[in-house]
Design goal:
two-stranded antiparallel sheet; alpha/beta; Spore Coat Polysaccharide Biosynthesis Protein SpsA, Chain A; 7-stranded mixed β-sheet; 7 helices
Length: 243
């Protein structure tokens, strides 16, 4: 299987956060990105982490990460113009000898150790795996006129999460094929699928949300409260957990 490394993508512009940097937003006393990195830091399977950050803020992130005391951060590299370019920049910085690479969004701070280990184990067996959860709602496909074209069978639909895990060579080849063809994808599982490789779905948790809007921060705070046993406001007990 070789060594397992992670590429954590934190180079987005937080365009839907109303001017707030979601990666550095506090979440129960710890920044979103620090929580995401901390979950990976604790994985016994990971040899190291490559962090991809905004090009213009790379120096600031290096200082912050040093202060967080995370020993598995091997490289901090500037990202590209979109997520696909940023992941590719991270892949180029992964040390030699990497057998599997785990790709995770820095804005998913509630990922659990169990999820991390499960997706690594699945990829070790088949070469490509992604966390996902079954769709809860009815999904309709719309036409350009705004009318429903069809209702999809939600029993076969899944929402894709991260981390996703792949054979390093498989993922690198998929990225190179996409670059050569000029195509862009929103996640790495889609890249690998487009390259003709099967990707296994590993059921994750609905708690593993992505921070995209300010409302997501409030939801994550509530989920952390449930996890850490924080009592409701009627008791007056509002302790902040650090997991």
């Amino acid at each position: 299987m070789g060594k397992v490394y992670a590429v954590v993508v934190a180079a987005g512009r937080s365009t839907r956060m109303g001017g707030i940097n979601k990666q550095l937003s506090p979440l129960a006393g710890i920044t979103v990105l620090a929580r995401s990195l901390g979950a990976l830091e604790q994985s016994p399977r990971l040899e190291g982490i490559v962090l991809v950050v905004p090009r213009e803020d790379a120096g600031e992130y290096r200082t912050l990460v040093e202060n967080w005391g995370l020993s598995k951060i091997k490289e901090i590299v500037p990202g590209g113009n979109d997520r696909q370019q940023s992941v590719f920049a991270g892949l180029l910085a992964v040390p030699s000898g990497c057998g599997l690479v785990l790709v995770h969004d820095g804005a998913r701070p509630l990922v659990s150790g169990k999820e991390i280990e499960a997706v690594i184990a699945a990829a070790a067996g088949c070469g490509a795996a992604t966390l996902a959860v079954p769709v809860k709602d009815t999904i309709k496909e719309a036409g350009p006129d705004g009318f429903v074209v069809r209702t999809l069978d939600r029993g076969r639909l899944w929402l894709t999460l991260t981390p996703q895990c792949f054979s390093y060579d498989m993922l690198m080849d998929a990225h190179l094929q996409a670059r050569d063809s000029g195509l862009s994808y929103t996640d790495d599982a889609s890249l690998v699928e487009a390259a003709g490789k099967p990707v296994r779905l590993v059921e994750g948790s609905y708690r593993n949300i992505k921070i995209t809007t300010p409302e997501d921060l409030a939801v994550a705070e509530a989920l952390l409260g449930l996890r850490n046993g924080i009592k409701g406001p009627e008791t007056g007990d509002r302790r902040q957990g650090t997991e």
